[in-house]
Amino acid sequence: MSEQVTEKPEILVVDDSKVIRLAVKKMLVGDYKLHFAEDGQVAWEILQKNNAISVVFTDLNMPNLNGMELLSYIRCADNEHIADLPVIIITGHEDSESIKQEVFDAGATDFITKPFESIDLLSRAKAYARLSRKVVELEKKTGYDELTGLYNASSLEQHGIKAFSFASRHKLSISLALFEITGFEEYFLNHGKSIAQNIIAAVGKRMLEVMREEDIAARTGVAKYALVLPMTDKTQTEIVINRVRESINKLVFDTGKEKIRISFVAGYIVPDLTEENNFKDILEQADDALQQATNLLTENIVCYGEELEIEASAVVVTEQDIEQAFLYIMDGDFYKIPEQHIAAVFERLSPFMQYAEEAVNNEQLIVNS
Hints:
The protein is of the alpha/beta class. It has a 5-stranded parallel sheet, with helices on both faces. The chain has a 5-stranded mixed sheet with strand order 7-8-6-11-12. It has a two-stranded antiparallel sheet with strand order 9-10. The chain has helices at 18-28, 40-49, 67-75, 80-83, 97-105, 118-142, 153-169, 184-210, 234-249, 279-295, 319-330, 339-368, and strands at 10-14, 33-37, 53-59, 87-91, 110-113, 174-181, 216-221, 224-230, 253-254, 259-260, 264-269, 301-303. The protein folds into 3 domains: 10-142, Response regulator (Rossmann fold); 153-308, Reverse transcriptase/Diguanylate cyclase domain (Alpha-Beta Plaits, 2-Layer Sandwich); 319-368, no CATH class. Helices cover 51% and strands 16% of the residues. α1 links the parallel β1 and β2.
């Protein structure tokens, strides 16, 4: 007798139309646990909090964060479950074939056109919810990331716990290094899914080539990797990281229009195993170091717990940075401006803001007079 699954698959529906949301609810509520969002920003917050969602249906045209932007957030997510979610785009008759092709190239799984029949919605929900569940079950069984051949995140935890426990018992040095490809979202948006996957796979291959037999390598996010390095102290860890860097720096990807090279940031930890800390804590600390390396312009390799003295003058904002910030502002994407650049952008805008304020005040004086 086959095992029965009692939990309903969870589906996220994203559409700014209340009518569409109510229609979907009427069609699916009996068989699925439904979550609704009126725009991409709310949907993204829901996805980050709920790892049980197995399918996303999203409209293209929405305020705050549209469907294309939400798709990009999903495909570039650090959380591998989110990044691999089936995303079905809800399109209208007015959407052209070129738009559909563009969205498909960006990573959409399927399309459904408004107005849709209940059978169309049900068939897609059933097929992709089942597929999502099978993928998760298969990855748990195999323990490997299909794209790179490295361990997946759950296997990293399983093997990492054993490696750190062994090192602690025998008082051996051990380290954990996390790597992330810089600017990966731009590669995905500018060059498409195929080039992005080639980059992910090539980096994984290089890591397999440079690691020792006793090392543990895993892909833990879309463009994020981990290395557990037994019997390796701080100096040796930096040697390994630089060896990975040299290997990856040799990679060249031909997009058909240009040739691109990639770079990465790294955060690592060589923990004091006399303290009471578990592997999850160590992983979080290494991730803190990685985030610090991501946020700094002068350091791309950071060791957890190591004090960094970064002078304010070390942050250099170029004219290109300023121009890009202005483009973001004009497009309403000001949140994309790096925090390190905000002060310089504000300084550049200050004369105009002062001029604009004076002009408004003068106009009000003329009107009042």
